[in-house]
Design goal:
Number of helices: 11
Structural class: alpha/beta
CATH class of one domain: Alpha Beta
CATH topology of one domain: Rossmann fold
Radius of gyration: 18 Å
Strand order of the largest sheet: 3-2-1-4-5-6-11
Strand content: 15-25%
Number of strands: 13
Amino acid sequence: MYRSLSPWLPDMRWLVLGATGLLGPAFLTAIASRGELAIPAARSGASVAVDITDLNALGECLEAWKPDGVINCAALADLTACEKDPCAAYTVNARPLAVLAAWSNHNQRPLVHISTDQMMSGSGAFAQSEDTLASFPNEYARSKYAGEAFALTSPFALIARTNIVGAAKGFGAQMLKALREKEPLTLFDDYYTSPVHIGAMAEVTLRLSQMGAHGVFNVAGSSVASKADFAMALAARLGINCDWAGFASATTIAPARNLGLGLNVAKAENLLGQQMPDLADCVDALAMEVGL
């Protein structure tokens, strides 16, 4: 749903939670490029130290800094860790959103919450809309969906479902290292996502928020590609023949996960009046991030 609800001030001051993760630094860069102020916050390593699982501390942080908007990139994204400790998954991925949503609603200020594609219930190379029935094969998906529900109690909240890649950590970093160093490589040809580079994701999400978007938006790549497709596209971009790689089914991965995570980005594209980056754009941005 779209209505112009979110107030946007000329000199926005954004509190970025999870500022030291994969996506947080991309938001810091995107905010600075707009001439706005980013307040980096994380449990450690950032200008503002705050543990979002300490709800009192989170409330005190909001009161002390009085931001014009909050971007929540903080998450426990390790699926195995979430399975081992569902309580930790809930206290990081869900419960803090109740505090953030209450702050957003009371102050009528934008809350941008970064969510995931992991609750998508499809199969194969299909792009699914924001209204697709959710499915919860693991605790990570369950806790992130609960976080969305808390966030949506504020009419000023924008939930961005995505599948990000970057060179610092995660799948993008793993693929870059494996391809460049010719490490053993298993490619999954039945596990589909809509990958988008962290830089493009941050820029688009800020634009959506500025335009007053609220509710759930898929902010991802316009291509639905298997993990194998991604690796081979990246290899081609790097000029590498990955003929040593093997193929396998992602049904062998633990914890269990949905394998059809493609995201339909038409809602975001229609509001923005532009197309989201495709697979080629994504791997090109990933390669350029490391100077290739």
